[in-house]
Specification:
This protein is of the alpha/beta class. The protein has 9 helices and 9 strands. The protein has a 9-stranded mixed sheet with strand order 3-4-5-2-6-7-1-8-9, with helices on both faces.
């Protein structure tokens, strides 16, 4: 066999190789930076982890950022936040999915309840959350310890590894607002569009929603537990109108201007400290 001849790379080839090496290093450093931010900031987390209906990673709209900051501001000041905004702007995916995943990643021992307007919607929220926890590679990079538990994994509830409470309590449980079953105790409750257009037609339905909200779900909240309510106004006597007048709640109301060019906002409540340290 003949001798193998090794041709040394030209200066141009060396330069190209070095540029590629540096680009890969920069890409890796940027990825690590985004992961670190996603661990401490719900807005950064949503952008890094959540996907839209086309499977593309979402871009936080200014309204989304406002919602997340409003929630943290209220929690910091011991208020329950309620966000009443336009239909179809991503409230559920931002909060019932993004905030729940973020909070569970930071504390796998949380007991979360998600309350929707129907049992069908509740199942959809659970399915989406389970799909992220079981299959999202980016979520695993941000919170490597947020993993599904084989002990409980059903259509209405599931556990994650790290659960430290009784068998009757679960990491996440989801119900319709008129459900007769409300489950165990909760550290965090998300009320996700619990009022719908049926509220326009039926007084008895409105009263049932209010009763279940108070005697059913809010009664399960731990003394230091947290709540978020998101929805759209439907009727002048529905639950949301009650929330506007209740002490202990802070309400953010958003709507579209008459010329359809702007988002108009009303923040009901006293001035609060607007700073929030996510790493605290």
């Amino acid at each position: 066999m003949g001798r193998k001849i090794v041709i040394p790379p030209t200066p141009e080839e060396k330069a190209i190789k070095e540029i590629r090496r540096k680009r890969l290093k920069i890409k890796k450093l940027r990825e690590e930076y985004l992961i670190r931010l996603a661990r401490v900031d719900n807005n950064r987390f949503n952008e890094y982890v959540l996907l839209d209906e086309n499977g593309e990673h979402i871009k936080q709209w200014v309204g989304h950022i406002r919602w997340q900051n409003f929630i943290r501001m209220c929690w910091r000041n011991n208020y329950h936040p309620a966000i009443f905004s336009m239909w179809g702007h991503g409230k559920s995916s931002q909060i019932a999915i993004g905030t729940v995943l973020f909070e569970l990643g930071r504390n796998p021992s949380l007991r979360v309840k998600i309350v929707c307007n129907s049992d069908g919607q509740a199942k959809k929220r659970v399915t989406t959350l389970k799909n992220y926890i079981a299959g999202s590679r980016r979520l695993r990079k941000v919170f490597p310890n947020l993993r599904p538990s084989s002990r409980h994994w059903t259509t209405h509830s599931f556990d994650v590894v790290g659960k430290s409470y009784s068998e009757i309590d679960h990491s996440v449980e989801a119900y319709g607002i008129t459900s007769k079953v409300v489950g165990g105790r909760a550290d965090l409750i998300i009320f996700d569009d619990v009022v719908d257009n049926e509220s326009e037609q039926s007084k008895s339905y409105r009263e049932t929603v209010k009763e279940n909200f108070d005697s059913g779900f809010m009664s399960r909240l731990e003394p230091n537990g947290r709540v978020v309510m998101i929805g759209t106004f439907w009727h002048v006597e529905d639950l949301y109108q009650d929330i506007l007048r209740r002490p202990g709640w802070r309400c953010l109301i958003q709507g579209v201007s008459e010329d359809f060019k702007y988002i108009e906002e009303i923040d009901l409540g006293e001035n609060l400290d607007t700073g929030y340290d996510y790493a605290a």
